[in-house]
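Below is a complete specimen:
___
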Amino acid sequence: MSTHAKRERLILADLLESVGPDAPTLCEGWRARDLAAHVVVRERRPDAAGGILLGPLKGRLERVQSEFAAKPYEELIQLIRTGPPRLSPMNVKLVDEAANTVEFYVHAEDVRRAQPDWTPRPLDRVFEDALWARLERAARMLGRRSPAGLVLRRPDGRTVVAHRGAPVVTVTGGPGELTMFALGRQNAAQVDLEGEPEAVEKVRSSRIGLPG
């Protein structure tokens, strides 16, 4: 049975292929080629990928990523499609689902939403619930830098507190949109924000999500 991560991997690869190497993305300073190189390095070069989260390794990550970005674009796309090396832990289904479902979904949207003619992608309920479950677990970590109290709410009323504080800003949207918002793509997320105007503006413009 296909997993969410495997499906999102193929969607990402298809999008990267369709837009071409020089297309913009939502990742600041990255074209499609740079994003593709990031995905490949993250899976295939654990000696460098630690720099995604660890400052002291950032220089090595940037060097290795530049080397991969210099490879033929078609080769990068194929490496994404085929996935990590055979002995990689990410070939284990549970690890792949945990590590890559959100990663590939968000990066696919980074490509899709940076194009001038992009249209929203409908998500099925099962996938929405999978994204929501991951967001519930990660909300406190993703919202820890919020300049105000932050509550994420689905249209059906289910909520998760991402940051305790006052005043409170409540962000309402589908799980996919809330995931984009919580991972720092606030301006690209189709959500509604409620709260004091000043707090809403601070939350919309602050650097929330993972460091980097």
Summary: The chain is about 50% helix and 10% strand. Residues 93-112 form the longest helix (20 residues). The beta strands are 149-153, 159-163, 168-172, 192-194.
